[in-house]
Amino acid sequence: MNFRPLRLLMLLTASAALVSAAVAHDTWLQTNTSVLRPGDSVYLELMLGNHGNGARDFKVAGKLNLDGSAVSVIGPDGKAIDIKPTLVDRGYAPKEGYWSAQFTPVKPGMYLAIQTSDQVASYAPQRSVRNAKTFFLVSASLDKVTPDAPGFDTVTGDGLEFVPQINPVAPMGAGYPIKVKLVFHGKPLAGEKVSFIPQSQTLTEAFDPHFERKTDANGLATFEPNASDYYLIVAHHDIPADAGQAYKTIAYSATLTVMVPALCPCCAQ
After folding, report:
1. What is the gyration radius of the CA atoms in the chain, in angstroms?
2. Cβ distance 215 to 192 under 8 Å?
3. pTM of structure
4. DSSP for residue 55
5. Residues near 4 by Cβ (< 8 Å), separated by ≥ 6?
6. Which residues contact 98 (CB under 8 A, 6 or more apart)?
7. Which end of the chain has fewer beta carbons closer than 10 Å to its terminal beta carbon, N or C?
8. CATH 2.60.40.1930, domain 4-260, yes or no
9. Domain ranges in the chain?
10. Are 79 and 71 in contact (CB under 8 A)?
11. pLDDT in tens, 69-117
């Protein structure tokens, strides 16, 4: 019996699966804390997951290739600080682990950490455009945090992105809503699925009514966590490419991480 056709079919199937998983990877940024004092350090971690391929969790799929990526922190004054040169490889092998950076803010206020990338996969006819955000608040006092610090609802204009409509840091805790607007090139995007993924759980297949929502006509989605956890918010939007391009589709992804503490940092005095 000739096994060569069977082997060829198995190799092609495996290759297709790898391509599907690779182009479906999303990035996210996470921090070790959401509230810190001026002069203290926050550690920013740039992760790569497999959410676009149906795996809605915090599992790491591999280390991101930084080609085509920008990583920065935008401070209360609106100025962006490039932190890509400070990223440290935390993986043992070239494609394993994640990237990490230490950042030490000096001014109080709201800070946005953001990673964007625009890449065309050489192994698949698809262009991938990513936007990953997280926020942290710098406060002179950790037990008297000022609520509603401005600067969390700025639209950066990078493809698909989440724009918080309620402060994602303080006030925040179990019972406080997480409300986001899904924006595509600056305009609200309606009817898209938004996943609010808790670090302690994995979402069910298809649509999980406990942790997923559809954006309304204004691009809004709201989720109210009932327990302390780290939440990864994810959305996707694919469009066909213009004629004549080397790729057939443009896959947009947006992520936002929100740390939900057991005690609200400005309410549990």
Report:
1. 19
2. yes
3. 0.88
4. -
5. none
6. 45, 46, 47, 48, 60, 63, 64, 90, 91
7. N
8. yes
9. 4-260
10. no
11. 999 999 999 999 999 999 999 999 988 999 999 999 999 999 999 999 9
